[in-house]
Specification:
Layout (H helix, E strand, L loop, with lengths): L1 H8 L6 E4 L1 H13 L5 E5 L4 H9 L3 E5 L8 H6 L5 E7 L11 H10 L5 E5 L15 H6 L3 E6 L12 E4 L2 H10 L7 H11 L2 H24 L3 E3 L5 E5 L8 H10 L5 E3 L4 E8 L3 H16 L5
Parallel strand pairs: 2-3, 2-4, 4-5, 5-6
Antiparallel strand pairs: 1-7, 6-7, 8-9, 9-11, 10-11
Amino acid sequence: MRDAIAKAYGLDAKRIVCGAGSDELLNLLAAAYLGPGDEAIYSEHGFLVYRIVILARGATPVVAPETELTADADAILARVTPATRIVFIANPNNPTGTYLSFDEVKRLRTGLPEHVLLVLDAAYAEYVRANDYEAGIELVATTHNTVMTRTFSKIYGLASLRIGWAYCPQEVADALNRIRGPFNVSGPAIAAGIAALQDQAEVQRAAAHNEVWLRRMADAIAQLGIEVTPSAANFLLLHFPSGNGKSAADADAFLHERRIILRRVAEYGFPASLRLTIGTEEDNRAVLEALAAFMGADRTS
């Protein structure tokens, strides 16, 4: 598996660690580098697993406010203390779909103390089409304190098989390999991951489909009067009005009646929002039709 990843991305296989999804790798990083008295920073609307793995190790989670629903390098740097050990950044972020440019990520890395590990969670990297984005490979290659995590759960569609990987400095890879389980990735997951890497035509097809429909869905939903956060990933964060029977909860119930499930994201600090993943053309059109009916209907009675 590591050899297949290294070949696909031009990396050193010895610096790749595989896990049962990138979630396990985030847990392993916390286990290796956090303990009671330590602190770890993540952004205001960052992936919920960061807080979970920090608390699981007895460390203190520190939340940095965002600017326009985007991680803010200066806000993160302002919260660094001598106790800070890790900074977690989802780039692009889930559930907002916003991202930090490579220049901002480099500025953040330069501003962090040497003893702080910067973890770049690039689960949705394959979807990004922005010219100023870089998943993290370059920083891992040029610094001794940056880790990039990736997953086969998103564009490769292998979420239920649980397979992810991290590209690390050699010392970090050695630490993770000492504490991970010897059989933490199953044989079927390894076989599927290798096969998926060999089918780059399907990856490109999925990325091209997402590029077209992400824009179409954002434009069409905004025209319905629903605010949409610009996204670089394969999902959109939809913000609903709070009154007149058109809240996120009302929309969720309306869509469920039509067997359409969006993601409630109240636990991320968005009680008035739903997250919509880009699907097939048929699915996308069905969602648009349902949302148009919801927004056009009189929901006050």
